[in-house]
């Protein structure tokens, strides 16, 4: 016996998705209240000098120019954002070719299984009933694949924007306490997670209902076609995972080279902030940092807190 009726489920799913998106927006707003001030006096996402969140119990560090630190964080954040955006846009150009080609392959393989028949066929679960033709299933599967891929592309871009938006704010808050940094990092992660999951659920819900206008009570054909949505999303996620890993490794090697050439810093030396970020991902790799006592307490989830050290040197 169903706990909820059909109408209740039809209402519950989009409402839950909208609530998740609204919650993500609220978390984003809270994170945005931590201002990152640029040299020109404008904000890198913040407004005015300081923030309502930071005005209470704001202790000035001895010998540290707060505005200079914030300006430096804004500069680093902007550089990270520009690099990440350039990488994503370049990757998505090549990915678009793959998606178009693979959507054509899906259509050809599924359509050719029934010789691109446009006639209704007996349903697999009930031969006495006529279901939608194979040609329609092939076309809708390809459309679902592209829709899932576009949703994943949008999710990747939004996730990147949230991450680059929050990194400098987490670092600035870490200068006032690890609890503040954790709160900003956690809220940023919540904003990203709820936004992406809720938007994906909403798009999937809309796709099922739109496809249902054609399929009617042919539930087998409907859900056979909608499986392309998951395939599209997984394909883009795979490219993002592999491509992002290569990009990160290239950035890691580049940072090592810059340290050696410009600052005469040896490889894997913790004085290079990029090394700290890279090594903080792995407990085994972090053992390389243990001889440096001031880094023993560096927590793995806050690899971006290396910006704190940069700010203190300004």
Structural overview:
This protein is mainly alpha-helical and 314 residues long. The protein has one domain (15-313). The protein is 69% helix and 1% strand. A hairpin with a 7-residue loop joins strand 1 (121-122) and strand 2. Helix 2 packs antiparallel against helix 3 and helix 2 packs antiparallel against helix 5 (219-263). The radius of gyration is 25 Å and the shape is elongated.
> Distance between termini?
66 Å
Number of helices: 8
Task: Determine the mean pLDDT.
Answer: 76
| Overall domain count | 1
Please give the number of β-strands.
Answer: 2
Largest sheet: 2 strands, antiparallel
Low-pLDDT runs: 39-59, 280-314
Keywords:
two-stranded antiparallel ribbon; single chain; about 325 residues; 8 helices; elongated; disordered C terminus; about 0% strand; mainly alpha
Task: Give a short synopsis of this structure.
With 314 residues, this protein is mostly helical. It has one domain (15-313). The chain is 69% helix and 1% strand.
